[in-house]
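Database export, one record per block. Field names are fixed; values are copied verbatim from the stored entry.
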Amino acid sequence: MTKKIIITIISCFILSTLSVTVFAQDIKTRMKERLPIINALKSDGIIGENNKGFLEFIGGKQDRAEVVKAENTDRAAVYEAIAKQQNTTSELVGKRRALQIVSEVARPGEWVQDSGGKWIKK
């Protein structure tokens, strides 16, 4: 390989690594900014954590739907990135995250969905 080709390959690798890092940081920042709204929606019983690792509306009230949609979009991107790293599916990553949320994150009184699809209050 010529020196120019090697430099090009290294540059592409560095740029792709940087773009993934920036992408991940952007998602993390957005998710952190949304967290107070999401926590309030959970406390009010408007949304819960489904068994696929996503937020879902409970009942007919859909306050702040744009926030829920944005959160789920970012979660899907995170699950996809993790799935690629672990050579698995994003669906499996989401289900694993749902289990983690139920056991470690969800607060008493918040809605969570069990593996059979039934909604229960933690």
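Remark 1: The chain has one domain: 35-121.
Remark 2: The helical segments are 3-43, 65-86, 90-105.
End of record.
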